[in-house]
Amino acid sequence: MTSSPPDTPFSLADLSGTVTAGMPIALAELGDLVRIPSVSWAAFDPAHVHRSADAIHALVDGLGVFDNVQISQAPIGDTLDLGQPAILATRAAKNGKPTILLYAHHDVQPPGKDEDWDTPPFEPTVKGDRLYGRGAADDKAGVMAHVAAIRAFVEHAGGDFDLGLVLFIEGEEEFGSRSFKNFLRQHQAELTADVIVVADSDNWDIDTPALTVALRGNVTFRLTVRTLDHASHSGMFGGAAPDAMLAMVRLLATLHDEAGSVAVDGLTSAEGESPEYPETQLSQEAAFLDGVTSIGKGSIPSRLWFQPSITVTGIDAPSVANASNTLLPSVSVRVSARVAPGQSGADAYAAIERHCLAHAPFGASIVIDDVDSGDPFLVDTSGWAVTEVKDAMALAWGVDAVETGIGGSIPFIPDLVELFPDAQILVTGVEDPDSRAHSPNESLHLGVFRRAILTEAVLLAKLNARD
Ligand SMILES: [Zn+2]
Q1: Which pLDDT belongs to residue 275?
Q2: At what angle do helices 446-464 and 140-156 cross, to 10 degrees?
Q3: How much is the pTM?
Q4: Ligand 1 centre and the CA of 384: distance in Å?
């Protein structure tokens, strides 16, 4: 046994040894969770999500540290329909100690086509230093990081401790967290905490931990351009009658300037610190083909985290195989925009809508519907919890943490901020740039997994020692 230095309330070496000893069990339990295809999307069997909730309930109950462990469902919006089952476990703080809430989600994205996977998506498979499977990283590894960290911390604390603990494992993050806000309202008293850890993000690389301090918001909508009342022969009218595809292409082209930066008046950018991120790293991580160059202006992190982006992610038009010689009367696309920290999703949508209506070419009719938006998020990094978690990361990884943004959103975070304005929110995670969350061959780096568990165990020990 290593003894603690006088100024630390725990022994890092002991805690690290406990985490390492617990890895085989944590990995086996993670594998059992990956085997349950808990896809939360409406078209998939909800029985699997319930099975996954039951399995996690049993794991959490087995920790033996919570006063109460329950599975709960909240209604979706104003309906009577219930969202997917979440696990909520609570243990009250004693002797004036803080309370920490640990969040992760146990539902997963659909696997996509089996043939795109090198190993079966719901068969956990270790190859080299990675565990492959849908949910192996996002976010069943987040669930297991909490469980394994609590287990190691409790063992290290000799079974008793004063820190308040809340564990909240959501069941429908991948399907828009539709009952999330109602769940927060229903359980507001039980969920109240000084610090909220959201373990659903990534790390800088497999050797460098990251604390996510900025998240872009998002806006999506369907954009339909109509120019003609019906299709007609392109040989007869082409060259004089404007087809909807031409109008759509020209309208979409106005959304960006020559460099590929967003060119929509009213969309704003933010300023922020960013680590070194060379263009070569971007082209490798995003799999650029030879000769392809980046788009936008400013540093790469600024483009990814602090500036808006607009992408067309789908198009309704005749397929190439079905194309005939006609002028298309109508074309629809799905537009997906990312909103810089500092601007609300609603404001950003209003700016893009104004732009589209003002730039309709040839008098085309523009219809926008199916609009969805979420607000961005910027962490106040001056809070004590940020210092504590960055210390914990440095101890567990042996390398200082970098503060990063992520280009994507975690749409429920604005709900957390709204309902728990006094909580300090820490966005951490178990992923790395090769994790491929949501994609075929999703995987978890086993070294990152161990360091994420140790980070959290250290954080629990540090908060338990706070007055
Ligand atoms: Zn996730």
Answers
A1: 86
A2: 50
A3: 0.84
A4: 26
